[in-house]
Amino acid sequence: MAIFSVYVVNKAGGLIYQLDSYAPRAEAEKTFSYPLDLLLKLHDERVLVAFGQRDGIRVGHAVLAINGMDVNGRYTADGKEVLEYLGNPANYPVSIRFGRPRLTSNEKLMLASMFHSLFAIGSQLSPEQGSSGIEMLETDTFKLHCYQTLTGIKFVVLADPRQAGIDSLLRKIYEIYSDFALKNPFYSLEMPIRACRGKATVGWCSGTWTLFTQPSWTLGPSWCGCFVGGRRQPCWPHKSLQPPRRLCSNCSAWQWC
Amino acid sequence: MSRQANRGTESKKMSSELFTLTYGALVTQLCKDYENDEDVNKQLDKMGFNIGVRLIEDFLARSNVGRCHDFRETADVIAKVAFKMYLGITPSITNWSPAGDEFSLILENNPLVDFVELPDNHSSLIYSNLLCGVLRGALEMMAVEAKFVQDTLKGDGVTEIRMRFIRRIEDNLPAGEE
Asked: Main localization of the protein (chain A) (predicted)?
């Protein structure tokens, strides 16, 4: 999926909405024997690789699972400390899965406020009078696009560097925000937006960004009308148990998730 | 209405009669609840304010207007774009004060008051006070005052809303403010 995540930040810098789309993460699972030739350290309640990068396991990757069972921060699924477990030769050979750790929601909140402050600094540092804040941040693996509305809400989208049309996507997300969040009288402004029953997502269909509404979860025949990414795909029950298909409101066809 | 060609949801058309009836039911219920015209006026203004703070986002999302550089531009945008988009009418702007911080919006026909007649016991009720609240709420980044000066319901020929700019509220967005 070309869009990695969407963040909506309110006027005060608080994160009010966040969406991560399913993106394959670089993970590597290997079997090790004692002694472990990687140096692991504990950081921020996670066990990270500090030294010993090889074979797809990079420095900064976290221990995601041991022997197929997901770890819980610094503890294994059984409640033992990971570092202790891996220090005991009796537990070997052991299969460990490493990968980039996912951000927790607290970290996302913190990063959103940090971005809000950097945005303000950016607009003040600019040598041009009256310049806007950060509109795009480019790295070699993603591009961050930001659109600040005249009312101070920021819509931030992280996408593939080659993905085009993000500006219209940001405007579209603004429209959707003004519909789904603001038209709901029970939604308080500047507060986090709860995912509602009528959850809508935006995707690419027929050359433009369109709103997809999710139907209720039904098992059905798997075929696809619209397609994302330029490829027609079969629909399988999604492993996150979300509905596998969405109805495209642009052409009223089922589209794969 | 300014919409893009392939808008996902269909544009909703609603009869203006239903809108007038709904607004009328709202005002009459408020009158029954509060029994005092001044309180009803205040409530309508508060409700309008809550509508305004949400409406402004919808307006900015759909109309793509840029930042206004002075109060005259603001007045133009309100009359020619906003009123047209939401109520289908285009009020005219007159009576600028010499300092350029007050103007009047003249509405020839007000869709909220179709077929409405104010009875004698509600002579100080400002029926369309919701509109003043909406204007105040939409412009909440600057403190403005909006009040009805003339009202067709009270016998005047046109409805006139006088808007006055008080000050800009400085704790707003950081990017590019002059």
From this structure: endoplasmic reticulum
Amino acid (one-letter) located at B19: F
- pTM, full prediction: 0.74
- Which residue ranges of chain A lie beneath pLDDT 50? 197, 214-243, 257
Separation between Cα atoms, residue B110 and residue B91, nearest integer Å: 9
A148-183 pLDDT, tens digit each = 998 889 999 999 999 888 999 999 999 888 887 777
B70 forms bridges with which residues in the sheet?
none
Asked if A130 and B172 come within 8 Å (Cβ–Cβ), the reply is: no
Write out pLDDT tens, residues B121-177: 888 899 999 999 999 999 988 888 888 888 888 888 889 999 999 888 876 665 555
Residue A131: list chain B partners with CB under 8 A: 175-176
Tokens read off for B176 = 């590019």
Contacts of B6 in chain A (CB under 8 A): 206, 208, 210, 250
| Shared fold status for A3-22+105-183 and A27-99 | no
pLDDT, tens digit, for every residue of A29-40?
A: 888 888 888 888
- DSSP for A215-235? PP--------SB-STT-----
Is pLDDT larger for residue B25 or for residue A257?
A: B25
CB < 8 Å to B61, chain A: 149, 171, 174-175, 177-178
ipTM of the complex: 0.77
Q: Is the minimum CB–CB distance between A203 and chain B shorter than 8 Å?
A: no
Alpha helices, DSSP H, located in chain B: 16-34, 37-63, 71-76, 83-86, 129-138
Q: To probe the interface with B, which of A175, A210, A212 has the most B CB atoms within 10 Å?
A: A175
- The domains of chain A are located at 3-22+105-183, 27-99
Q: Do A11 and B6 touch (CB under 8 A)?
A: no
Cα–chain-centroid distance for residue A240? Answer: 14
B9 and A249 within 8 Å at the Cβ level: the answer is: yes
Per the CB < 8 Å rule, is A132 touching B56?
Answer: no
Q: What is the CATH number of domain A27-99?
A: 2.30.42.40
Contact B178 A130 (CB under 8 A): yes
